[in-house]
């Protein structure tokens, strides 16, 4: 497709111009980042069309899943501010997808995408940190390979952004903006071949040798995906975008919006319930946290930057963008202080900063664990007495699982190379920066955290309403 790639010069490629009348293909559109990406594109850019690769899930058809997504509060701004919101939502077209098949979409849909798509955002991923190694490689590597095999044949594609993670090379103390292909066992292809011939017990025994110094299957599989892109798809107008920990929205479309209780949001649940919580982390280590709306704005800026004529690489090295900074970070030890900004009262803000205890002492942490478990068991016994379902220990175990998954990242620190990301920001006009705000160094964290706890509380309320609706049905 080399001769068919249309690139533009710096002068005519502002983000607004680049996305105008574009046809965008998105994978992972039902995820946390994916929803914000779809909403931002629909609200701020005059795109012609969005194609969303979506599978049937739990007997809910792909088109019905899209309808459910559009009912979520994140799209209320479009519904409220647009004279004809139906015309905006009609730009999104679902492509029924099954990544377990070699031909992931129908022949008709394939021809449609090949002739129309101009921009691709590959956001799909399995974010289960401790998933078995074969499943993680299948989702994060093989599925992406199937997608890019189709993208290779797209006649009009101008830019492809593959979303990876800042931690894809977390076995190194400095995260550089380059791909490292030091994959054991001769590379990911050999690994998949070896694993396909092993029993489950043998795979489990081999996994520690495969991971080496990598903390989990998620980071390892994302590293493999980057190596695959460099080896097989460097001839495409493709870039790798690496966000760190992505948390609730800062300003867009709703301050504090979040739709899940993973990571830091989930670990705040005890605090919301008026309880203390203790987690293990090195207090002085920066957390490398970014709001989801800033993350999406950076992705869109990289998408436009990726299509410039002066970005054509002669050495076929895929450009990497580390969306992280060393300058304006929250340290793990300060999270209690910052999160308490969202408490309702002055007294709550005063005492809330002590609700989350951060320690690197395993002994102190274990003492807290025993105390939490004792409280949860006692509370559950009271619930049983009054004829209600036990829930405290279950909730606590979920929070423990989140913390266990995140512990490696809270106990280790990294320095950041982000020259490519800074170059994107420096090239942008003031108008573009207002449209796509993503400069973490200028982010007001105190202002951000005023909506952090209220956003989680709102997400909890929505979950409760959904449960009540299911019971009523």
Explain this structure:
With 473 residues, this protein is an alpha/beta fold. The protein contains 21 helices and 13 strands. It has helices at 15-19, 32-44, 62-70, 76-81, 85-89, 107-116, 133-151, 188-195, 200-211, 217-232, 263-267, 269-272, 292-305, 335-339, 346-352, 362-385, 392-411, 419-427, 430-435, 445-449, 452-472; strands at residues 23-27, 49-54, 92-96, 119-122, 159-163, 174-175, 238-242, 245-247, 277-280, 289-291, 320-322, 356-359, 415-416. The protein has a 7-stranded parallel β-sheet with strand order 3-2-1-4-5-7-11, with helices on both faces. The protein has a two-stranded parallel sheet with strand order 6-13. A two-stranded parallel sheet has the order 8-10. Helix 2 links the parallel strand 1 (23-27) and strand 2. The chain is globular and about 65 Å long. The chain starts with 14 loop residues before the first helix and ends with a helix.
Physical arrangement of strands within the biggest beta sheet? 3-2-1-4-5-7-11
Looking at how many chains there are and whether they match, the oligomeric state comes to single chain
- Separation of termini? 51 Å
Helical region count? 21
- State the total count of DSSP E strands: 13
Considering DSSP H and I runs of 4 or more, what fraction of the residues is helical? 40-55%
> Main beta sheet: strand number and arrangement?
7 strands, parallel
Low-confidence stretches: 1-6
Q: Give the amount of beta strand, in percent.
A: 5-15%
Average pLDDT, to the nearest integer? 88
How would you classify the helix and strand content by structural class? alpha/beta
Which value, in Å, is the CA radius of gyration? Answer: 23 Å
Shape designation: globular
